[in-house]
Amino acid sequence: MTKVITNKSINLMEKLSLFSEHWSPKVIAEMNDYQFKLVKLKGEFTWHKHEHTDETFLVLKGEMTILLRDKTIKLCENELYVVPKGVEHKPVAEQECQVLIIEPKGVINTGDADSELTADNDVWI
Amino acid sequence: MTKVITNKSINLMEKLSLFSEHWSPKVIAEMNDYQFKLVKLKGEFTWHKHEHTDETFLVLKGEMTILLRDKTIKLCENELYVVPKGVEHKPVAEQECQVLIIEPKGVINTGDADSELTADNDVWI
C-alpha cells in the first residue's frame, strides 16, 4: 500500500469504534517505515518473539499483562512497554484491553510462532 | 546514553508529573533507534522542519494546533498526527498541552531552525 498522508489528525477512540474483533491489528498511520496499529486484546495470545525488532505496547483502555519468560509486565491505561527484539512474550488480557502498537511496517503479530492467531498484515482502518 | 531496558511499564502521567517546563522534550523509552518523548507545550513554537524524518505527535492532555504552510491540523486528546519529513511546521498551544512525541533518536526539537527554543537532546526522565 502506498504511504497514507492524512490532512487531519487521527482520533484513536474513533478508530477503535470501527472494529470489534480481538487480536487483529489495524494500521492507522505510518511514520517513516514504522506503523501505528490499534488492537483489541482479550484472552491469551501465543508465545512468540520478533527476531529483528523491538515492539511497543501503549494501553489506551483497560489493562493487560505481557508475560516474559523471566518476568511479568503489568500495563494499565496510559502505560507503555517496549518488548526488546528477540525476547519471547505472551500478551494476556482478562477483560478487553485497547492498545496502540508501534513497530516497523511488515511485522507479523505472531512473530516466529506458527499460530492460528496470525492476523492479516497491513490492514488499514 | 546506553539503551535503557525497563523491568516494568512506563506510566505516562507519572512521568509528566516530574517536570513543568515547556518545549523541553524528555525521553522516556526507546524502540530500536526511535525514542518516545514527553513534552509540555504552551504558546507558539518556531517554524521548522526535519529534513530526514517524519515526526509523530500524540496529544495526551489538552489541545494543540500544528500549523503547516498550506493547512492547519487541530489535535485534541487521544489524537495523533504524523508531520511528514521535510514539511515545515509550527506547533502552537493556547493552553498547556501534554504530548507524546515519537521520532528517531537524535532529532532536534527545532529541526533546521536557528532558535533559542532549541532544547537539550536525549534528556531522560
Automatic annotation (TrEMBL), chains A, B:
Q: Which GO terms describe its molecular function?
A: isomerase activity
Tell me which domain of life the UniProt entry assigns to the organism this sequence originates from.
Bacteria
**Record key words, sorted:** Isomerase
Q: Which Pfam families match?
A: Cupin_2 (PF07883)
Which InterPro entries does the annotation name? Cupin_2 (IPR013096), PKS_Associated_Protein (IPR052044), RmlC-like_jellyroll (IPR014710), RmlC_Cupin_sf (IPR011051)
Keyword Isomerase: yes or no? Answer: yes
Q: Report domain Cupin type-2 positions.
A: 43-101
Protein name (record): Mannose-6-phosphate isomerase-like protein (Cupin superfamily)
Origin species, per record, is Pleionea mediterranea
